[in-house]
What we know:
Blueprint: E1 2-3, H1 13-22, E2 45-46, E3 51-52, E4 58-64, E5 78-83, E6 88-91, H2 97-103, E7 113-115, H3 121-124, H4 127-136, E8 143-148, H5 157-167, H6 169-176, E9 186-191, E10 198-203, E11 206-212, E12 221-227, E13 230-234, H7 242-247, E14 253-257, H8 262-269, H9 273-283, H10 287-297, E15 301-305, H11 311-322, E16 329-331, E17 336-340, E18 345-350, H12 378-381, H13 388-401
Parallel strand pairs: 2-18, 6-7, 7-8, 8-9, 13-14, 14-15, 15-16
Antiparallel strand pairs: 1-3, 4-5, 4-17, 5-6, 10-11, 11-12, 12-13, 17-18
This protein binds zinc ion (ZN) (2 copies).
Amino acid sequence: MEKNCKKLLLVGMSLLLSSLFAASGLLAAGGPVKDPVGIAPDRYVYYPGTEQLGQDEIRLVALGTGMPAARRSQAATCWLVELGNGDKFLFDIGTGANANMAALMIPFDFLSKIFLTHLHTDHWGDLPGLWAGGWTSGRTGPLVIWGPSGATEEMGTKYAVEHFLKAYNWDRMTRLANLASKPGQIIVHEFDYKQENKVVYEKDGVVIKSWPAIHAGDGSISYVLEWKGMRIVIGGDTMPNKWYIKYAKDADLAIHEAFMTPEQLVKFYNQAPKTALGVGTYVHTSPQAFGKVMSEIRPRHAVAYHFFNETETRYKIYEDIRQTYDGPLSMAKDNMVWNITKDNITERMTVSAEEAWGVVGPTAPPPPDHTVPDQLTKWSLDHRWNVDDVQQDMIKAFKEKYNMK
Ligand SMILES: [Zn+2]
Ligand SMILES: [Zn+2]
């Protein structure tokens, strides 16, 4: 890992300090500071865009770890997997995740491959923002989505995306009139939700497979990404299931939900006790059960998520997990980042820009192709109010600068 943290050291100072104290061992964070004006040792933080991945290194960033009712400190489920060969994959894109994604300042062209575990809004509710945001801000090609079928055609990913585009028809048509059409397209690869450890993606040495999960209705699944002998498992929402036990065994890093306790669901999430017990143990996986799953599959590192992570909740969830699992564990929150190699796994927090802009990638965006006409009719245009007197000088100067007719 190559690190160049100089520029952002001051910017990130307050976050850096809180992360430092949150880190597992205070002195482990690079050791003592020996020079009052020099560069400080490694502080267990990640500054996006400043770290070159090793050729055999994986970086995983949590862009959403929370609940359907997203909060400012936690969006709903979204994971970004970045590989040393330059590949990037999004797993789920839950409500609110785009803000964390934007803060990494990665060109939209590198964020076009999305793998959905299931179709609850907390796992794909921020698709509109990535779709339209990328379309207006530099993506050059279509979004590509992989996702499971359902028990019927209407419960599958293909149906969902087709009708997503229909629901957003006004958005789509008004942009088609003004922008290039290609970045507004969505390509869907739907696969059988019942398939067991079968390949859904294979390219450049990267293999992504799926197996079923058991959650609310048929059609939730889990993924494993395999690359250079390492296996990263991204568990879809589920009650504990035999497939995960079988196929996630000995994973390098295993993500699995550990839901809030039924008591917490009553106290903080306004659920009736009967609902809370069902949600916490039948629709989802309790912390104790999460621990039992991890003790069985024994990953190099376990990641628990899908709970609002705050002082009122995390200690109880952690204690419950520790009743049944004593291995390496992260209690996920947004912007947590893991670097994974065959020899080492680290957990850090991202320090990123609050006011990020879209970043241009190596490919120039295609020009508008006007596949549909202007969507404003004469009726609207006839009601324009003349403002030529206040903006004509600005328009003239702009046209001269950019050589426009
Ligand atoms: Zn769900
Ligand atoms: Zn969920």
